[in-house]
Each structure stands twice: as structure tokens, then as C-alpha cells.
Design brief:
- There is one protein chain.
- 79% of the residues lie in helices and 0% in strands.
- With 241 residues, it is an all-alpha fold.
- The chain has one domain (2-240).
- 36% of the residues are buried.
- It is built from ten helices and no strands.
- Helix 3 (59-87) packs parallel to helix 6, helix 3 packs antiparallel against helix 7 (162-173) and helix 3 runs antiparallel to helix 9.
- The two termini are 21 Å apart.
């Protein structure tokens, strides 16, 4: 299986290289983390000079939103890959190869998880404004990694081609606002954002940054993510099949 995953990954890279937008989606995350590291302190100094607003208190939220960009972009990336392969009839080819359709789907969901998990650590290393520890960040990285296949399944299940995929991607991008809405609005109705899986990695990271109890948030995030996974998997299997 490992050899098959490697072969499929090489094919993915060839597809990704043909589309500059897809390449930018990968490196754009690192550029955004670099912007946070070097630009946010300067912005904080500028704001502090002219106002009494303390931006440093909101660093964990800002960093958590940057972290959410990782599964978002990687999930969309692999969603577009599946749409491309479905348009070209490659899925039928994989169904009769030793990889099989089940193996293909497994790789299509496993690869974005692995990439997101590893890339999350690179992002948190680059950002440099929010304190973190590797022991408590591993659960965050795990939650982030689980978001990527959900987004891939959404793309592959709801879009019939790349044009529809581009429109759907704009809607999916709005899910990153879930933790921001709950953070900024004190109305109890804002808690409805908790039903979205993307809410929980950011919320858990904020709790850890403030030295608050985060275990319950992490466990709830896992449960909600798995519930969405089960729900989307049925739609995903039907569409791909």
C-alpha cells in the first residue's frame, strides 16, 4: 500500500504543477504564516501608537485562523485533483488496477491528512507570535488533519466539474469564519458555529493559549468531526461510485 501511495503522490504532483493556482495554495499558507511573524508585530506597534487597542490579546485567534488555512487549502487542492481525474475518466482506470477504487479513495483521503498534519507544524514554527508547546499542539494538528479529507469529500461530492468546484470553494472558504464569529459576537446564537468541524481546532488552540481546560473541547471536536465524516462519506461514496 505504501508503494501505491507513493506512485499516486507522484502523479498528483504532476497534475498540481500544471496549475499555478494549486501550487500557490500550498506555498501561500507558508507565506501567510511569514506575514504573521513579521507583519503582525509591526501592525501591533502601529495600532498601539494611535489607539489603546491591544492586538496581542488576539494573537491566538489570528494564528488559529492561519492554521485553519492549512486543511482548507490542502482539502480544496485534493478536491480539485479528484474533479480533474473524474472528468478525465481516470477513476475507471484505477478501479481495474491493483490499487482498486477502494485503495484510490483511501489514498485520496489519507494524503491530505498527512500533508496537513506535517504542514501544521511548519506553520506553527514560522508564525512566531503565539506561544505553543509540542505536547499540546499534537492534538491541534490532529484535529486540523481531520478537516482536510472532509473538505475534499465536500468538493468531490457536491461539485460535478472544476467550474462548479471553484464556486463551491468560495462557499467552503467561509467556514473559516466560524471561530471568528463566535469569538467576536457575544450573542448565544453565535454558538451555532460549534456544529462546524472547522470551529474546534481554532477554539482548542485558543483555550490552550489561555491556559484553560482544553481536553473537553478537543474530544467534542473529534466527535463532531467523525459525525461529519460519516455523513459526508455516504454522499462521497455515492458520487464517486
Amino acid at each position: 500500500m505504501i508503494k501505491k501511495v507513493v506512485v499516486l503522490s507522484i502523479g498528483d504532483w504532476k497534475n498540481i504543477r500544471r496549475d499555478p493556482l494549486l501550487i500557490f495554495s500550498m506555498f501561500g499558507i507558508l507565506l501567510l504564516a511569514s506575514l504573521v511573524r513579521f507583519g503582525l508585530p509591526k501592525l501591533d506597534t502601529l495600532i498601539d501608537t494611535h489607539t489603546t487597542f491591544e492586538l496581542t490579546q488576539h494573537y491566538p485567534l489570528i494564528v488559529s485562523l492561519v492554521l485553519l488555512m492549512t486543511p482548507l487549502m490542502i482539502g480544496l487542492l485534493y478536491g480539485f485533483v479528484i474533479l480533474d481525474e473524474r472528468d478525465e475518466g481516470v477513476l475507471l482506470y484505477y478501479a481495474v488496477t491493483p490499487l482498486t477504487k477502494v485503495g484510490y479513495l483511501f489514498c485520496r483521503l489519507l494524503l491530505p491528512m498527512i500533508i496537513t498534519f506535517l504542514l501544521s507544524f511548519i506553520v506553527i514554527l514560522i508564525q512566531g507570535v503565539a506561544e505553543w508547546q509540542i505536547i499540546t499542539f499534537v492534538p491541534i494538528a490532529l484535529l486540523l488533519a481531520l478537516q482536510a479529507p472532509l473538505i475534499t469529500m465536500l468538493m468531490a461530492s457536491l461539485a460535478s466539474n472544476k467550474v462548479e468546484g471553484l464556486a463551491l470553494a468560495k462557499v467552503i472558504n467561509l467556514s473559516i469564519l466560524a471561530p471568528l464569529i463566535d469569538y467576536a459576537i457575544t450573542n448565544p446564537l453565535s454558538k451555532v458555529m460549534m456544529i462546524l468541524p472547522m470551529y474546534w481546532p481554532a477554539y482548542t488552540f485558543i483555550l490552550i493559549s489561555h491556559n484553560e481546560d482544553w481536553i473537553h473541547a478537543f474530544l467534542i471536536g473529534i466527535v463532531i468531526t467523525i459525525a461529519w465524516f460519516v455523513m459526508l462519506n455516504q454522499l462521497f461514496q455515492k458520487k464517486i461510485g
